Amino acid sequence: MGLFGFFKKENEEKKEIQALPLVVRTENVNDTLAKISSKYNIPFSNLDFEITEVKTFIKTENDHEFIEVDEDSKMLLKNENFLRNEKNEIKQVYEIKIIKYEVSDFELIGKIEINEKLKGAKFILSPKSLIVYSDILFEKFREELNKKKIRNSLLINLFDEKMNESIEKTVAKLRIIGSLECEEEILLCKGIDEIPTVQGEVVYHYKKNETAVKKELIYPVKAGEILIEIKKTKPGKNGRNCRGKIILAEKVKDFEIPSIGYDQKTIKKEEDNEKIVFTALKNGYLYNDSGVFVIKDEMEIKQINIKTGDVTGAKESDIKIDVKESDALKEAIGDNTTVETTTLIVRGNVGNSALIKCKDLKIMGQTHQKSKIYTQKGEINIHKGYVEADEIKITRLENGTVRANKAVISQVVGGEIFAKKVEIEILGSYLKCYALDEIKIHTLKGSENKLIISPAKVLGESIDTDKLQKKLGEIKRDLKINIEEYNKRLRVLKENKSSVNELKKLYLQNKTKGIKTLPAIIKKLKEFNSFKQKTVELKEKIEELKQGIKEMKETIDKLQNAVIYAKILSLSPWTPYNRIEFDFVEPPIKLTYDTKGNEGVCGFKLKDFGNIKKIVKIKIKENNDSGS
Length: 628
Fold this sequence. Notes:
By secondary structure, this protein is of the alpha/beta class.
C-alpha cells in the first residue's frame, strides 16, 4: 500500500468512527443499514446493530391509525379470532444502535429456512458456530436470533414460543458437552395457518378413467365403491404469517346442492355435515335411466366405437355386454376401441387395432388382423388377429395368431398357433403350429404346414431356452468361483485359529481385571470375526447356487419328458410336404421329418434308442387315440 493509500484508509476509518454509533428508529432494518452504508460510504459488511427497543403496533377495523400495544392489548396478539381477522393489522418499529462490525468469540453460523407463505421459519445451526458456554448464553442466543429474524423482516416477540424452548435445549447441550456434535434445528416462529375453504362440488368418481379426449361408454363399478360425492360448502379461515401479514382463505363460491335420483336397491346414500355420498351396493355397471342412477348386470348396445367411447375396468365387475351390430359391412367393435368386461357377446365384426379383455367371449363375425383379444374362454367365428386364451374355439382361422392352453379349430387357412393342446378339424396349408402335449388333425387337405412340439415356443419367455442355458452356465461358473474363494478362506481361518484364540484369551483376562485392551488387538479380533462371518455367508451362498442348479436341471428334465411323450396325430392320410418337428430344450436340438404322402393314417412321436432319439410313426386306434 502506498502513502496515499494509507492516508485514504485512515480517513475512511475516521469517518466510520465519527458516524458510529448511530441510534435510529426503523421498520425495515436492512433498508436503514443500506442507507447508512451509502450516506457515510461505509461497506455494508462493516455494519452491525444492537436492538435497544421494540414497539409493536396494531390497527383494528375500528381504528384509523396504528396504536401501540400496551399490557391490556397485548393479549390480542395471542387471540386467534383477532389474528385471523383480515381487517386487523400488525407492525413493529425497532430502535437500533448501529455499530461497526467486530469479530467476536460468539457467532451463530447456519441458514434460515422460511416455508411457503412465510407461515414458519427455522434456523439450522451449524456445529462450526463459535459458541462458548456462559451464564448469559441464552440471552446472547436470543438476541442474535432476533437480529437474524429482523434482517428477514420477521416479527420478534410474537409467534416465537417454541424458539425459547429450542434455545434452552441447545444451551443445555452446550453446558454438558461443551460443543455441538451435529446441526441443531431452532424454530424461530410459527404463524397461524389458514384453514382452507371447501368449495361445494359434485365429484363423479365413476368417471375416474374419463378424459376430455377419451370418453367412457359404460362405467363398471364394484360393491362398496363410491360413485358420486357431493362436497358441501364450508368457509375457511384466514391465517397470519410471521411478518404479521394476513393469509387470506379463498372466498366461498356460489353452489347449490343438486338433487340426484338413485335406485335404493342397488345404491346407498349417506349424508353428514361435510358431504353426501352415493355408494354401490353390488357389482355391475352404472346406468343413468332418465335421471335416476341404477346398477345393472347386463347391457345391450348397438356398437362400441370412438364416438360412443371405450369400456374399461369392467372385467372384474360381473358385467355382460351384448353388442348387437351384425351387419357384415360394419364393425360392432370399432377401430382403436378398448372393451373390458366380464362377458362379451359381439354379433358382428371387431375392427382395426381394437383391444378386448374379458373372461367369456363370443364373436359371431370376424376379427381384424390388427385386433388383440385376451380372454379366459372364448369362441370366434373368423379369426384374423391375435387372441390369447385359456380355452379357445375358432370356426375358421385365417392367418391369425392363437396362444392358448387348449385350442380347438374347425378350419385353418394359414396362421400361427401356440398351445399346449391343439385340435384341428380341417387343416389347409401354411400353418405354423407349436404345441406342448398334442396336435390332432381330423382331416388334412393341404401342405407346407409346420407341426412342431416345442416347449420353448409354447411357454414363451418363461422358458426361453437360450436364456435358460446361459443362466445355467452362469450359475455353474459362479459356483466354481465361490467354492474356490470359500476354500481359500477356510485355509486362512485354520492358519490363524491358534493366534486368534490367544488374543481372545488375553482380551477376556483384561476385561476381568478391568484393564483396557490395546486398540490394535481389538481391531484384529473384529477383523477376524468379520472374515469368519463372511465365510459363513459364502457357504450359504454356495448351497443356494447348488439348489438353483438342481431346480433348473429338474425344469429342463420335465420339458424333455414333455417332448418325449408328446404326439402329432392325423386321423386322415398325410399329404406330402408337411414338416413334423420335435424341439429339445437341453441340448437345444431339433429333430424333423418331412411327410412324403405315403404315410397313411398315423401319428408321430419320439422314441429313445439309447444314445439316440428318433421320430417314429405310431398307429391310430379306432377311438382316435394312438398306439405304438
